[in-house]
Amino acid sequence: MRDSLDPGRGRLDRREWLRLGAAGAAALGLPACAAWNEGEAASEAPPTLQPPAGVEDADWEDVRAHFLVEPGTAYFNNASIGMPPRQVIDAVAAGYRAMAELPARGRSDLSARIAEDVVPGLARLFSVDADEVTLTRNASEALHLQSIGVRLDPGDEVLITSQEHPAGRRPWEFRQARDGIGVNQVFIPSPLPAEEELLSRIEEAITPRTRAVAFCHVTRGGHLYPVQAICRLARERGLVSLVDGAQAVGQFPIDLSSLGCDAYAVSLHKWMLAPAGTGFLFVRRDARDRIRTAFAPDATPERPQFEPPGTAAFPVRAAIGSAVDFVTTLGVEAVEARCRFLSDHLKSRLAAMPGVTLLSGAREQSAPGSTIFEKEGLDAVAAVEAIETLAAAHIDEHQRDGHNAIRVSTHIYNTTAQVDRFVEALARTTG
Description:
Layout: H1 14-18, H2 20-27, H3 61-64, E1 74-75, H4 86-101, H5 103-125, E2 133-136, H6 139-149, E3 157-161, H7 166-179, E4 182-186, H8 195-205, E5 210-216, H9 227-236, E6 240-244, H10 256-259, E7 263-267, E8 279-283, H11 314-318, H12 320-330, H13 332-351, E9 356-358, E10 370-375, H14 380-391, E11 393-394, E12 396-398, E13 405-409, H15 416-427
Parallel strand pairs: 1-11, 3-4, 3-5, 5-6, 6-7
Antiparallel strand pairs: 2-8, 7-8, 9-10, 10-13, 12-13
Helix pairs in contact: 2-4, 4-5, 5-12, 6-7, 12-13, 13-15, 14-15
């Protein structure tokens, strides 16, 4: 494998690169990773990745073997940051090794991999063209690029909702302070009202000065906004539609072309299992006259140049391809079904617990893997540490939208036994 990086030879071919998944670290002479499952030796390779046959724990046992979570730990905070599988970890390590051995050649090879494999792979997965995808460090960066790129004059307004993530609000607060843009916030209750009422609230909040509508696909509490319908409304009113997809991508299939939005911001290190510090910005080709780059004075609609200039984390970005391969091998539909199976199990256990109020809403309005709930007399912030101590389970609080709630975000590598352990610990947690 060393010889494949020799200046006299060509770039790593796709087969060699993808082979870095299961055995990349060993092939490059890197230190062995820690054991990825309880009782397994670090030298054992995980099973070959296969699409699971169903949604039960046994169907996903081989998939769980690809993750290196600390033995005995139940990680239920995927909505904050996910765990990359070993294939992705090895690809990152291999990329940095390549740049350390031959920096110029390593950078060239990785840049080619990003352009020829990663960006086209993301474009195929989300049903858009490759030149509509711009890699970013995260959804927050993409949201900022959305905001500062929209053509707005002083006094123009953008409409946002009361359930936006901080990363979705702050770019508009920045433009409000810098450019005199009006930020109009429409109140959306939690749990969500029926779609007709939600759309009516948004439509009634549009004023003659509204120029754009910015909203999240999935709220922090796991509620699903009707993206297509909101974008259709925006288009009918001549408004730019800008979507925060940080909590959506990787949980269920998303066709960005069909959604009808003008721009969409993505975090890849949550549900998509890519390395930390990865995301992308989608800008529809026919929206480039209304959303412009913040960096290039010579940008044109044909060459929009949305990407921030300078050196990027090439090994990290190249490893996005391994995450895309991992998720597409499993099938995004299978991931959705598994996440829904686990959250349904959790909700059924919580529904039977005295003093617990489920807030996740109806099935059609809730994301597959996110569950929020309140427990009478339990402070959500205090519960995070208490649950970690009692059950070695990592959760998050949701003290917003008028709630004193706990958020549990289950992913494919969690199990019903872990969920049961969490619920039992919750029953013993007070104060």
